[in-house]
Request: fold
Amino acid sequence: MRKLPADSYYLRKMRKDDIPYVKEIENLSFTNPWPEAAFKGEVENPGISFPYVIVLKGEERIVGHIIYWKIKEEVQISNIAVHPDFRGLGMGEKVIRSIMAKIKNEGVSYIFLEVRPSNKTAVALYKKLEFQKLGLRKNYYHNPIEDAIIMGRSL
Reply:
């Protein structure tokens, strides 16, 4: 797998003016993408939500995003996507590892997420990051209808 140097991109808080770019990545990434209003709600949520964008240095281009919810000592990754032109470069792994280190330092002890079983690339990444299968949510996804694998790990 080819990789981008770790210093070729960075994470920063998502802003309202990022939403059109995030929405484009979302539409390219999922058959049932989040609506624009959902991203706006995440940006405006001062409590448990932490939305970030992945920005390619030099071009200052948004190439991905991650949103997670922190509830006491747990975090749920609710949305993560990388633009198709930048997949396979190790970016998703680096971002998740970065977030895990950050939240561990903040006292979080457990992280979890849901993923489509058909998203073999994502499932393989989460396994590589030592997430374990915890169970299934029946008919969780739509377009097409599919169960969700619940995965999690201790930090």
Observations:
- The CA atoms of residues 26 and 142 lie 15 Å apart.
